Amino acid sequence: MTNRGTGHDSAPRDTVPPTPRCPPGPTCDGSSDPPSLPGDDSTAGPLRCNILVVNPFGLHWRIAERFSRTAKGYTCVVRVWHGESRADGKSPTDLILLVALPGAELVLEVDGPDAEAALSSLTEILASPGGEDHSS
């Protein structure tokens, strides 16, 4: 489980992630590339995307399980932020503990060699009004 500021872990308290940095090409919200900032090294660091929870039940167990199952298929690190709370995207229990109700804004953060591919498929799951997978 992630550090939630309980003092039981030597890691620093979770902090809100920096401004989202979407991959080259279409951004998470479907718009064109964001403008480059001076000194911005867009090849380093994790990719981030803001996602609005539109499912009328919020981030519930079936979506959390589908999201984590998909995330486990990638080698990159997957984190989901809700405010100052952070969850391991490969743990459905961590995701549920975010208590992301309808209308909540989440930040999806992926970092690793297959981050762009992971960001695309994981964003689709969280942003879906249904998000359910009844095939498995």
What does this structure look like?
There is one protein chain. The protein is of the alpha+beta class. The chain has a domain at 61-127: 2-Layer Sandwich (Histidine-containing Protein, Chain: A). Helices cover 21% and strands 17% of the residues. A 4-stranded antiparallel sheet has the order 1-4-2-3. Helix 1 packs antiparallel against helix 3 (115-127). It is globular.
Low-pLDDT residue spans: 1-13, 23-27, 29-42
Tell me the name of the CATH homologous superfamily of the domain at 61-127.
Answer: HPr-like
CATH architecture of the domain at 61-127: 2-Layer Sandwich
Order of helices and strands: EHEEHEH
Strand order of the largest sheet: 1-4-2-3
Total E-strand runs: 4
How does the major sheet shape up?
4 strands, antiparallel
Distance between the termini: 26 Å
**Which CATH C-level class of the domain at 61-127 is it?**
Alpha Beta
Range of helix content = 10-25%
Classification by helices and strands: alpha+beta
Shape: globular
Observed structural traits:
136 residues, alpha+beta, Histidine-containing Protein, Chain: A, 21% helix, 17% strand, globular
In short:
The chain has 3 helices and 4 strands; from the N terminus they run E-H-E-E-H-E-H.
Write the layout of secondary structure elements.
Blueprint: E1 47-52, H1 61-71, E2 77-82, E3 85-88, H2 92-96, E4 105-111, H3 115-127
Antiparallel strand pairs: 1-4, 2-3, 2-4
